[in-house]
Structures are given as structure tokens and as C-alpha cells.
Protein 1
Amino acid sequence: MFRKILATLCLACVAAGAVAVELELDGQLTQGALIRGQTAPGNQVLLNGEPVKVTEQGLFAIGFGRDAALEHELEIVPEDGQPLMRKLKLSPRDYEIQRVEGVPQRTVTPDESSLARIREEAAQVRQARATDSARTDFTGDFIWPVGGRISGVYGSQRFYNGEPRTPHYGIDVARPAGTPVVAPAGGVVTLAHPDMFYSGGTLLIDHGFGVSSTFLHLSEILVEEGQEVSQGENVARVGATGRATGPHLDWRINWYGERLDPVTVAPPIVDGHAPGPNAEQE
């Protein structure tokens, strides 16, 4: 199922002859990471005391934001037996400072008339990210939605036209306008907005169990809300809409309200380039 197994753990044998509880984790134990896991069917999973949704096969996902604490507790509760705890220790990350010049000044310091629109659009995105479907597309290998030069990285502190703003929560791939964007995993479209104030053409795809992808600055969206898509299917085209200085795709991964680094689930970057579709186009 998983691209890479981080650990297979015999958490404990609570008594002589008891069955060991096994846990498999796929991913990097670091800030910004999406971790996929598997335990025995029927086991419950809790992260820091909060229940985690688990499939009938024992599959689940958890995520740690940009500035997540470095220590967490993952608890496995068997159907029959004593709950068992494992401490997760995350590695800290250092984030770049990125200065972006030449963006439209109205998107750096929006006027009062734009603020209501910004709040409404933010609410739409939050609602889409809160989708809690039973799809299991999140368990498979992800692919890059577009290939090409990496022009922006997750977590970097952004300065727009010299003014400090919130960190960047995606990975930017520079591609010509109109380059096709494909679904990195199967799912259902939960948001398709042609022109948001900051992000321009904006698309969200739900991959199940709180995991979703967001695509920003699109010039065209080729799918509709509620539409089911397959991995590799064309869903949009690269653009430079919203707060952008040139054509690129901003791809983001979410676990419910946590904004994560797509690099933690995508194939490795090679020489500063994403090895995805259309990478040969310049």
C-alpha cells in the first residue's frame, strides 16, 4: 500500500501469550508532514487524546503543521486489550525567507471593500478542507500534478513587495500558462472557484479521511464541484491569477485544518525540478 514504511512497531505484549499490537507508519516524522498509517482492523487510534478516523482495514492519516510541537502521543486502542501509547518525536525544520516583488499592491494591502470578499472566500476554503469523506485515495502513492522547476517552497516566510506576510503553505512549480495540471491522487472536487482574491483560480480535491489537495493561481478549471476524478486526469491549467508575479502552480496538501508540505508525499525533487507530467515544456 505505502510508498515507504517508516516503522513497523511491536508496541507491547501486555501479558504472557497476548497478541502484539502492530503499527506501520509511512512518512517523515517532521514538521509539515503527512503521515499515513495502518494498524489492525478494529483498533482505535488517538493523536494527543483526539480520535483519528480509521478505515475498516485499519488505515488512517495524521498531519503535523508548519510549527507543530515536536512531541506527540499516538495511542492504539485494541478491541480487546489494554490501550498502548507511542511517543512521536518530530524533527524541527528551518524555513527560508522569500522576497517576492512585483505582485499587485492591492493584494498586499487590500482596501476595506475587498475584506468582506476575502473573508467569504476564506470560509469557502475552510469548509472544503473540512470535508470528512470515507474515500481511501489518500492511501496510495501521490504523483506531481505538474512537473518543472521548483520556484517556491513550503513554510518560507514571505515578504510581498517588501512587506512581511503569512508563511507560504504550498510548493510552487513554475510552468507556462496553460500547462495542464493533473490530479495527484483520485478524489472528488469540493471547490472550484474561477477567481479568488488572493489565490485566483482555486481548486480543491478531497482524497478522503481529511486529506485534500489545493491548487492555486489557475488560468482555467476543467472540472466541477462534486465531480469524481482519477489520478493523472487533467483537472486545470497553470496560470498567474490572484497574488502572483508569473505563471506557476501552487500545490498544497491538507489534513483537515492542518496545511502540510506536499514534498512529504510526492516523489523526490530532482535537481530542483519536480519529476511530474509536462516537465519537458519550457
Note: The first strand starts at residue 7 and ends at 10.
Protein 2
Amino acid sequence: MPVRNYTYYDYTLSLCPKCLKRIDAKIVFEDDKVYMLKRCPEHGNSKVLIADDIAYYKNSRNYNKPSETPYKFNTKTDYGCPYDCGLCPDHEQHSCLTVIEITDRCNLTCPTCYAGSSPFYGRHRTLDEVKKMLDSIVRNEKEPDVVQLSGGEPTEHPDFFEILSYAKSLPIRHLMLNTNGIKIAKDKDFVNELKKYTPDFEIYLQFDSFEDDILKELRGAHLSEIRKQAIANLNEVNLSTTLVVTLQKGLNDHEIGKIIDYALLQKCVRGVTFQPTQIAGRLQNFNPETDRMTLTEVRRKILEQTAIFNPDDLLPVPCNPDALVMGYALKLAGEVFPLTRYINPNDLLDNSKNTIIYEQDEQLKGKMIDLFSTGNSVEVAEENLKSILCCLPHIDAPHLGYDNLFRIIIMQFIDAYNFDVRAIKKSCVHIVDKDYKIIPFETMNLFYRDDKKARLKVLRNEIKF
């Protein structure tokens, strides 16, 4: 009998990357890789690489937990995912991290920008509008885990510190500032003022490369000295910082290990987040056929380029295992100890129950599942880590503190190419729209920005009930 050149694994709903219509898709294994096969009646067949590690892809399905929904939904389910955002009652995850774009304006015009920001694009949200956006998150979440002020470049907003003060007055557990670091590098007084908003405040610092030519291609400017000065200023006041790296295959993926090694030497840096480029917004120097990176490719390159981590150190995140990988490490006496190496996930994973089961008591199990969540800052995780150190006999750290913690995250924002409705329903990184609805970050960039809404209206009108 004829035999397929692949092994069929699963079925899902995806999107045509050209017209964004919802279409059937097969998940298949071929040549030790995972592909999505789909066909649009208008635009034909497409084959998309979604993972280069079959074993990891299959294992990630075991890292799951019961869905945690928001206290309030913002829209009805009428057209089906992803045309009803959000959050609609069919969504399966509350907001672990919620982004607020307080401005469209930016002091850069990055060739790679999901929001299409520039010095002349759009406008600043008014202070009243921003307050309403923050209030909408609190209505949904009651005590939001993490809220990130973003843009554009949020430090350009004329009411920046008023916004920051209002956010700190709300029951938000952890606040982040997403920034390109230019203001931080140039103004120490500004950094000193930021420090006043600690604890539970963190800088999410754009840090894509050490090489100016690469930064020019990604960000449109030579920024390596700016980055170094920003880190120096943040180190001076020890203001908690996560380095965020937008990755493009063949451009800066060779620097993954170097960035981790550099981050571990910085007093203020609590971790690194790697984000493969989402095919959305402005992409001037990006070819989807050659430049896309998958989550598993990033994970593999971390393992190849550092001597610190092994495969058991970087685990799927239970709230959205298809799109998130996380690993914690302890920095002690000049050495780095990946936490999951001592926990040994192979012994702790119980495949039959479709969850992570820990050999210790239920309280510890809950603390570990809480730890592996994008809804936790490193600071929030400190208490969880202290509570489990007694179960890790190889680590003696009676004076463990915030400065000892380090976290690696891979955060893959799904786009029209690798869209999988199963994973989108578990999206836990959300954004507040201008109408104060909470929308998954991925679908916001595909359908709900101003220039996308006309296409969304057409797609909705074509759906037959």
C-alpha cells in the first residue's frame, strides 16, 4: 500500500496567512520535525514548520492545568475564535500578563515593530484613557498578576509618572515598564525616579544584540552603547530588569548564549526573555520563508550556546505550554544552579493525569505550578523558591534573596503562519484595546488594530450561521 511521507499527529483550526480565513490544518511529523499542513480554497496549500523537536512538542501536551478564567468577560462568542476577542467566554486563560499601550509614539522607527510605532505615528493616550484601561484590567482580574506599560515608547508620554503612580495605587501585583532604554541611558535622574516605584516594579529592556549592524537592521539605529549605558545606570540603583530579545533566524540567533552569559553578570538583571519575531506589524527586513524561528529552535540554541542548562532545565509553562518555555536558576557564590535540574521533571511528570505531579505534598505541587507561570515576576517567585529549597538537598542557601534569582523565558507569539486555535484559546499574554476590551496579544496584532479591523469585518460577514 502507498505510505505517506509523514506521520499524522493531530488536527486543528488555523488561518490562511494571506487572507486570514479560518481553515483546517493537520499537524504532522516529517524528517524529525513538526509541520502544519493547511489549504486555503483561494490561496492553495501551505506547509509551516512549527517545531524542530518532536519529543519536546509531544511532551509539552502533558504540561497542562485547569483553566483559570477572568472574573469578567468582555464580549460575546458569536463568530468563533479568533473573531470574537475579547476576552470571550470561550477563552481558556485569564491574563497572566496584560499590556497597556499608553502611546503610539516612539523615539525610534524600528524596521521590526508589531505596533508600527514612530515619532509621528498616532498619539499619546490621555491620562483619563490610560486610567480607564488600567481599571478595565482590575475589573477582569481583581488583583492582576503583571501589568506592562508599553507603546510605542512609554517613557515619551508627557504624563508618564502620573500613569505610573496611578498604576501603583491599584491592586496590581507586579508592574513592568517595556522600554528601548534610550531615556534610561541618557537621564540618571529619570532612573532614580523609577527606583522609587519599587518593589514589585521591573524594567523590560529591549536588548536584541551586541552588534550595531544587527541593531540597525532590527531597530533602525546603532544602539549598542545606549544599551550598555542603560544597563550601567540600572545596575547603579539595582533596579530589577529583564532583557528582552527579539529573534530573527540568521540575524541574531547566534548571540543567544552570549546574551545569557552577559545577563548573569549584571547585578540588576533578573532574567532574559527571548521572543521569535511575530509576523505582524512593520517587518521591513524579514522574509517569512527564511527568517522565522520556532520556540523549539530557540530552546535548542540556548542549550547549544550555554554550558549552564540541560534539556530538563527549560520546561513548558502550564498556562500555555505551546507558546511558553521557562526555567529558573539560582545565582550563588559566583555559580549558577538551574532549579529544574535538581527537581528532575522526568521523575515528576505523570503523563496519565495530563499535568505535572510532584512527589512531595500537595502544597509543594501548588507552589511549583504557581512558580512556572508568566503571571509571576522573579520577585513574586522568591517566596515560592524559599519554600521549596528544603526539598533540594544539594543547595544550601539560607540567605536567598531577590538578587539570587534568574529566569529564562521563551515567549512565542503565534501569527497567521503557525496559528493553532487550540493554543490561542490558552493565550495568557493579553493587551487592552482602545475600547477597553482585553484581547490576546496574538489576535490583537492580526485583527484588532485600527488598520486590521476592516478585514475582520469582512471575515465576520462571510461566516454562515
Note: Residues 127-141 form the longest helix (15 residues).
